[in-house]
Amino acid sequence: MKVEAKLFAFLVPFFLIVAGIYTYFTGVSEWVGIVGLLLTAVMCAFVAWFLWYSGRKVDARPEDDLDGEISDQSGDYGHFAPYSWWPLWLALAISIVTTGIGVGWWLVVVATPFLIWSVIGWTMEFFH
After folding, report:
1. Cα torsion angle, 74, 79, 80, 81, sign
2. d(CA 102, CA 43)
């Protein structure tokens, strides 16, 4: 995870420099962009620290080896549900809830049980 940690670590000074340039050109009259850029730098620092810290505790991955081959990273990447319908129901429920925020709160109240049902269904898919 060294590459990812370095990537996010290089983004921190970039966003700080951009925040300084933005502050200079807006004249501190527009705070939303300044705070947003500074918080983006902070969040990149958090991610860089987490990747650096967790990268010290795990073994080196094949993609961290500079002399590695593509075939070194063969095999399974994880367990994925082959024919799961739960992402569809979750996306539908989220779209109805977010539409309800704009249209009327009654739609949020109606769609929230479906949202909870689809999150629980997808989480407990392999536990029945």
Report:
1. positive
2. 29
Residue 15 CB-density burial (10 A; 0-12 exposed, 13-18 middle, 19+ buried): buried
d(CA 128, CA 115) in angstroms, rounded, equals 20
Q: What is the rounded CA–CA span in Å between residue 9 and residue 51?
A: 10
pLDDT score, position 29: 86
What pLDDT is stored for residue 23 in this prediction?
94
The pair of three-digit structure tokens given for residue 12, joined into one six-digit string:
């921190």
Confidence at residue 91, expressed as pLDDT on a 0 to 100 scale: 96
Q: List the chain residues with pLDDT less than 70.
A: 77, 128
Which residue matches tokens 């073994």? 59
